[in-house]
Amino acid sequence: MKRPASHPRGAIELLEEAVHLLRRGSLGSLACYYIGSLPFFMGLLYFWADMSRNGQAEKYNTLASLGLALLFVWMKCLHTVFTDQLKNKLYHLKPSPWSISRLIRVAVMQTIVQATGFLLLPVALVIAIPFAWVYAFYQSFTVLGDSGSSSIQETCGVTWRQAQLWPGQNHILISVFALSGLVVFLNLGVTLYMLPHLLKSLFDIDTVFVRSGVYVLNTTFLAVNISLTYLCLDPLVKATYVLRCFYGVSRLTGDDLKTELQDHFLPGKKLIAALLLLIFVVPVNPAAGEEYQGTLSRDSFESATTIDPGQLQESIEEVLQQKHYTWRLPRQKVERQGKQGGLLRDIISWLINGVKYFGKKIGNLVKTILEWIGKIFPKPVHADRRSDPGGTSKTELLLGLLMLILLTVILYWGLKIWQQVKRETQPIGVPTTPALPDLESEEIKADDLKANNWLKHAAELLRQQSFRLALRALYFAILAHLAEQEIIIIAKYKSNHEYRTELNRRLHEHTELVGCFDENVKIIDRVWYGMYEPTAEEIEYFTTNQERIMRFAWK
Description:
Elements: H1 11-24, H2 27-53, H3 61-91, H4 100-114, H5 117-127, H6 131-144, H7 152-163, H8 167-203, H9 208-212, H10 219-253, H11 255-263, H12 270-280, H13 289-295, H14 298-305, H15 309-320, H16 323-326, H17 342-376, H18 394-424, H19 451-463, H20 467-484, H21 496-506, H22 511-529, H23 536-553
Helix pairs in contact: 1-10, 2-3, 2-10, 3-4, 3-10, 5-6, 6-7, 6-10, 8-10, 19-20, 20-22, 20-23, 21-22, 22-23
């Protein structure tokens, strides 16, 4: 049997290489990925909960859907930036600048192609057979979506040919991702469910998740768990398909041989590596001979490898002054030159040194931030290379000045807001009373007030001879008290019959208490929903049952 021309790497070997690629990547690349993904998933969870529970959602569902679509486009664009940084690691290239035109082109291409995935991926999953190819197409388009092709059709053609490569490897990868996603999903689900109970057991921190019991396992919990699973696993998926595209393209360009050849040379042998690359990899072009000769001239090589001795000595002394080198040295006795100034001079000297130290640290922090920004959005390489490489460009100075102005504005407005909040804060000692809810509204719940506050409100309504509202306040006092004793759980969707069933399930042996609650439910249903005016005997009977229920619950 004839041996095929190219053999794919094994799926497990490719996964190991993808993990190594993620570890080689900078924190900036992962930050770029999550800056794009977190806003979309937070907006998706809010959209999910709001559209499923808000009664006024129909008024703004179109605008909310448009905002979610924009967040999806933002996420896909940042995913392309993330995969581009991983490709730069593979090709040993410096990051190319992201101009406005390049970002717009990526956004248009990702919007047109990735939007079809909401329809094609579920259909392919139901059919099952073409799912691996369709899934590989969309993942590969994220990697190759900024390939510089002249049209979307050409990019889609290249991506589809890439998705068809090595189907066995692709199926194994998807199976491993599915199994890993299931394990991560179960681990996160158990963690999210048990964490509130652990807080309750270890630190006595009670939350609504503990009081809700099994009701916490709803569709919102499922959506949160799926989103966290995606955020944990998807960077590895992206890195894996970056490698698949890299090896697929290398079948025609030989990029894998070039990068492997570069990896085998140490930094001190750059000249030999460049010569071998010119001999074996770079095609010979007689018209460009002068350019190659100028690039590898003796003068340019010596100027690139020459180091200033004074600068080298200064760097060595600075390193030797660091704490992990100087702490072993014997302590030197410092002789004071006279006693002029005394303690005051030492304090002033200490303050000056402290200001210098913190100024240096702040300068290093600003420099690190500028370098991080430069890695994500690097400057374009100009044709003129004769400028001083160690000098500071006008762009960096302008960027530092803008950051300083931004920090000053943020501090100024933060101080103004803090002063305003301080002025509006209520003085200590002024008693605060909770606002009384409108008992005529159907939106209020029994846990809006404490049980004692409901009783005070009911007494005031009885004095005003508003008997219907007083009975409802007394009924809310019963529910609030039972909830405070952790006998029932108050929820907006529960009916009076459901509260009676829950009370009977937990205190089924106390038939007298359940009977009193059942009688009061009948009275409140007849009075409140039947528009029936209660009599004095019914109010007294209701109050007697309420007192017996609350007195029993205290035991």
